[in-house]
């Protein structure tokens, strides 16, 4: 016995059975928890699926109710239109009924109110008599107004006669003043004609007896070739020399003519009728204007007052000789000077 106890005391402690028991217990617990979790997932999935089914049913019911609501609204609009139509028909029927009732009442009143109509006629006759009296009173007032207007017209006629008399006197005075003015103008024209004659005579003496510078009526004429090259508007040296003499004569003339005589020296540019070949000018009118302006500007540069000069252009539209010949073309190409009133 002591020996057996000694052997048992020397045997080591075996833990493995306890560990196996603990591990087995743990596995059982985990298995239980997994089973519970799976059951919970199952019931949860079934509940969610049931909720989806219910939700789909609710959505379907909502769609059906929406369609029923739209249909009800349409039926309501139709019913309102029908009610409006029936109301209008009822109003028309009421109006017709009222008209019939009025006609019936009028017929009844007409059948039993002859005396009333007679009384009304007498009242109307009295009213018309009153209106007639008022109209007669108004006619009397209008006659009085017409008399006053006639008196006013007579006064206006007298005033008009007096005005016509004064107008005749004024016309006579105006005619007298016009006659005096015409006489004064004629005197000025005659005086200007005398200065023009003296001026042209002086020019003929200064410029000499040349065939290309001549007097034609009341104008002094330079042939264009004296002053310009063919197709040009720049004064040539010989032309400037001739214009110097002319400028001196005009300056002297300005000193002699009284300031109250409104005179100007008009410089007219003329060309022949052949078409313009120069790129500088678009037409004969442009050339004649440029030449007249060139003469005026040169005379101003030589002391002639600018307010005593006028530049005019006539192109080929005022020919001296209408023939188609070189001689006629030469006569028509010219610069004319005319001493005239403003």
Automatic annotation (TrEMBL):
The keyword Electron transport does not apply. The keyword Repeat does not apply. Gene3D superfamilies: 1.10.287.1490, OmpA-like domain. Keywords: Coiled coil, Membrane, Transmembrane, Transmembrane helix. The chain crosses the membrane at residues 20-44. One of its GO terms (cellular component) is membrane. It comes from the Bacteria. InterPro entries: Bact_OuterMem_StrucFunc (IPR050330), OmpA-like (IPR006665), OmpA-like_sf (IPR036737). Residues 216-342 form the OmpA-like domain. NCBIfam families: PRK09039.1-2, PRK09039.1-3, PRK09039.1-4. This is Chemotaxis protein MotB. It comes from Methylovirgula ligni.
């Amino acid at each position: 016995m002591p020996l057996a106890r000694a052997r048992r005391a020397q045997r080591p402690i075996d833990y493995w059975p306890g560990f196996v028991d603990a591990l087995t217990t743990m596995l059982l617990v985990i298995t239980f928890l997994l089973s519970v979790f799976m059951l919970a997932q199952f019931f949860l999935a079934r509940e969610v699926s049931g909720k989806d089914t219910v939700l789909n049913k609710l959505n379907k019911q909502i769609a059906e109710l929406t369609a029923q609501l739209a249909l009800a609204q349409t039926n309501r609009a139709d019913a309102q239109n029908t009610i409006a139509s029936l109301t209008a028909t009822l109003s028309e029927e009421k109006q017709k009924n009222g008209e019939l009732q009025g006609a019936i009442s009028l017929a009844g009143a007409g059948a039993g109110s002859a005396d009333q109509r007679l009384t009304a006629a007498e009242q109307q006759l009295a009213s018309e008599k009153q209106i007639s009296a008022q109209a007669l009173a108004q006619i009397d007032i209008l006659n009085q107004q017409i008399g006053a207007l006639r008196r006013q017209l007579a006064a206006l006629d007298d005033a008009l006669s007096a005005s016509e008399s004064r107008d005749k006197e004024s016309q006579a005075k105006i005619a007298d003043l016009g006659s005096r003015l015409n006489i004064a103008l004629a005197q000025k024209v005659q005086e200007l004609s005398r200065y023009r004659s003296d001026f042209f005579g002086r020019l003929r003496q200064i410029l000499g007896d040349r065939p290309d510078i001549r007097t034609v009526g009341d104008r002094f004429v330079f042939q264009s070739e004296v002053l310009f090259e063919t197709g040009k508007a720049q004064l040539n040296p010989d032309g400037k020399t001739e214009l110097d003499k002319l400028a001196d004569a005009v300056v002297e003339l300005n000193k002699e003519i009284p300031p109250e005589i409104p005179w100007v020296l008009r410089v007219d540019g003329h060309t022949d009728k052949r078409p313009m070949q120069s790129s500088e000018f678009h037409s004969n009118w442009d050339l004649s204007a440029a030449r007249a302006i060139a003469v005026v500007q040169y005379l101003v540069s030589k002391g002639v007052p600018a307010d005593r000069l006028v530049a005019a252009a006539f192109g080929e539209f005022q020919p001296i000789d209408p023939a188609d010949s070189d001689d006629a073309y030469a006569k028509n190409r010219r610069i004319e000077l005319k001493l005239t009133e403003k």
